[in-house]
From TrEMBL, chains A, B:
<feature type="domain" description="Class II Histidinyl-tRNA synthetase (HisRS)-like catalytic core">
    <location>
        <begin position="9"/>
        <end position="308"/>
    </location>
</feature>
<feature type="binding site">
    <location>
        <position position="128"/>
    </location>
    <ligand>
        <name>L-histidine</name>
    </ligand>
</feature>
<dbReference type="GO" id="GO:0004821">
    <property type="term" value="F:histidine-tRNA ligase activity"/>
</dbReference>
<dbReference type="InterPro" id="IPR004516">
    <property type="entry name" value="HisRS/HisZ"/>
</dbReference>
<dbReference type="GO" id="GO:0006427">
    <property type="term" value="P:histidyl-tRNA aminoacylation"/>
</dbReference>
<dbReference type="InterPro" id="IPR045864">
    <property type="entry name" value="aa-tRNA-synth_II/BPL/LPL"/>
</dbReference>
<feature type="binding site">
    <location>
        <position position="124"/>
    </location>
    <ligand>
        <name>L-histidine</name>
    </ligand>
</feature>
<dbReference type="InterPro" id="IPR041715">
    <property type="entry name" value="HisRS-like_core"/>
</dbReference>
<dbReference type="Pfam" id="PF13393">
    <property type="entry name" value="tRNA-synt_His"/>
</dbReference>
<feature type="binding site">
    <location>
        <begin position="80"/>
        <end position="82"/>
    </location>
    <ligand>
        <name>L-histidine</name>
    </ligand>
</feature>
<protein>
    <recommendedName>
        <fullName>Class II Histidinyl-tRNA synthetase (HisRS)-like catalytic core domain-containing protein</fullName>
    </recommendedName>
</protein>
<dbReference type="GO" id="GO:0005737">
    <property type="term" value="C:cytoplasm"/>
</dbReference>
């Protein structure tokens, strides 16, 4: 019988994982709220064409489509919430003062899984600042991402910083490359191919390869590259950002990393956690498009906490205590206030141990099962 | 330009409503967790045929369908989570000791809106006991639903109790009706059509019409009907359930109400809140179907909190305080610990009042804006 069989990439989250995920999301968003970020909650599906127009890292062919007999149009399930938040910022919240701080959390759906992430439905949690993308904003976004993870019980975090438009900036300035060859230089830098860079005549870009790796050495090597004011202001920016989060994460620099940052401007970052393969989040500076064509600077991050839960992070559930049929309601409420999950007997046969209780409430006392 | 235009029945939740909804859901599920309910989180979509087989109150034609090129089958977006929780209880959690207590919360999607509820995407939050449907279980489920609403800041609740299989039970016992005429009797009772009941020869059912209304009068009238043991045990059950929730809700009885309770067995209830039109939740006893054909008793409730949020319930957001660029990080953390939402200046032009701040943090002091 096929009952219980789910489509590839869609799954049931069972105890204790479902609870751990909800707790992680709640705690992360509770931190965002305390930092002045107001929550928005866009719908799970939109008109396909509206959604596609705002998606940056997803392509139309990555979308799960929904047939909507009511509108007689094709809807798409959102593969990303950031684009929806951008839409809200420039439409229904366009009149609100800037910087506009928004937070969000909810499921997203992708057409296809990847080898690293076999799930097609995943949780996305994030925060965005719209209207400001200066260093203070970057510092706040990075600090918020790390604090949210910390409060959610995630440890062993690595923050990997990148400068998405660095090659473009150098190529247009101190280390000239004609426009048609910039992609080639970028690909060689992505591959950390020193020989290829030299052979192609991109010698001046070679020191950028060595400027990847753990702080502070990598930043020192970036500082040693003589490219005038371009690097100086960026280094000052990175220093200001990383100083604010000292002790909250291991820091690495990958100045020319472009993969997944194609739509970021001067600043980007990835988040990793010990024992979890692949990114757990990412962020950076970008622009949102207004209906009148104007572009507005923005800066934000998204976390994808499912792999953290699969790795056993996200906090522990309450300990369970079995409560007999005739227990005093006030005393049971007291146990809950003390942090217990109370499991009430519903008939005489209920078995404390089988119901996962480590303790039993007996004549007013907490007794180990 | 159509940017910002969403499909009918799908909407953006903006501040402060998105936050209020998330807070209400979190608090309700936090209460369930403290009562020993473990959270499960089924996927947003399943194979259409699997989902349809378990849906009780939704029909296949009520589903939004998704084209899935990966499985090459039609998926359906869930219109209800209870059916998915039932599936989990009899498959992946079939081996777990009973009573199995499960809780859930997440969005559901319907093909069509109704006049009363124009939204097609709505939040559903609930808890189910699988394996026991006795009075103790009913008392716990009703208490949990009311406590969850109370903790979530919802006031003015009415609990309306119904006995879904009462007419069947009376018809098969003390007040005989041949099987083919039971639906007719039920329809007349639903319409509270005393004349029709008398004309159709269902005179003995007439007193049930008067047994609808506020407690304790309605229950007294039900008690006055001489139908032998059938009513006595039900009245004792209702008394045990309602005694446990005295003071938490206004109580009404509608013993023959069937609408929406077609799949409930001996006990059903609806929840209403002052100032909110229509039900905000419902629950009762039912059965879940195992893969081997066995039916297992269950009892639970679902809340649909969106209308509560639209009515302004669900608690207030943190008050916002503007924090200057050079503020001490420890002091700012202290403000958050005191319950403030801190809104940091990101550059010199940021305007406290425009950013929704009622206060400003100035030289270590909280000052009204």
């Amino acid at each position: 019988m096929s009952v219980g069989l789910l489509p590839e990439g869609l799954r049931d989250r069972l105890p204790p994982h479902a609870d751990a995920l909800a707790r992680l999301v709640w705690r992360a968003l509770d931190v965002a709220q305390a930092w002045g970020y107001e929550r928005v909650s866009p719908p799970l599906a939109e008109f396909e064409d509206t959604l596609v127009g705002r998606l940056k890292s997803s392509r139309p062919q990555d979308l799960l489509r929904v047939i909507d007999p009511v509108s007689q149009r094709t809807l798409a399930l959102r593969p990303d919430i950031t684009a929806q938040v951008g839409r809200i910022a420039v439409t229904r919240m366009a009149h609100r003062a800037r910087p506009l701080r928004l937070a969000y959390g909810g499921p997203v759906l992708k057409l296809k899984a990847t080898q690293l992430r076999p799930e097609r439905e995943m949780m996305q949690v994030g925060a965005e600042i719209v209207g400001t993308d200066n260093i203070a904003a970057a510092r706040e976004i990075v600090s918020l991402a790390l604090t949210a993870l910390e409060r959610a019980g995630v440890t062993g975090i690595t923050l990997d910083i990148t400068l998405p438009d660095l090659v473009d900036t150098l190529a247009a300035g101190p280390f000239p490359i004609e426009a048609g060859r910039i992609d080639r230089a970028r690909a060689l830098l992505d591959a950390k191919d020193a020989g290829g860079l030299a052979a192609a005549g991109f010698d001046r870009y070679l020191p950028l390869i060595d400027a990847a790796g753990p702080f502070p050495q990598a930043l020192d090597r970036l500082r040693a590259i003589d490219a005038g004011g371009v690097l100086a202001s960026r280094i000052a920016g990175i220093e200001a950002i990383t100083t604010a989060v000292a002790g909250k994460a291991a820091l690495t620099l990958d100045p020319t990393e472009r993969h997944g940052f194609e739509y970021q401007s001067w600043f980007g970052f990835s988040l990793f956690a010990e024992g979890v393969s692949g990114e757990i989040g990412r962020g950076g500076s970008y622009t949102v498009l207004h209906p009148d064509g104007r572009e507005e600077p923005a800066l934000g991050f998204s976390l994808y906490p499912d792999p953290l839960i699969d790795a056993g992070l996200g906090g522990k559930p309450r300990q369970r205590i079995f409560v007999p049929l005739d227990a005093d309601a006030g005393a049971v409420e007291g146990l809950r206030a003390d942090g217990w999950a109370t499991v009430a007997a519903l008939d005489g046969d209920d078995d404390a141990a089988a119901l996962g209780c480590t303790h039993r409430f007996e004549r007013g006392a907490v007794v180990a099962v």
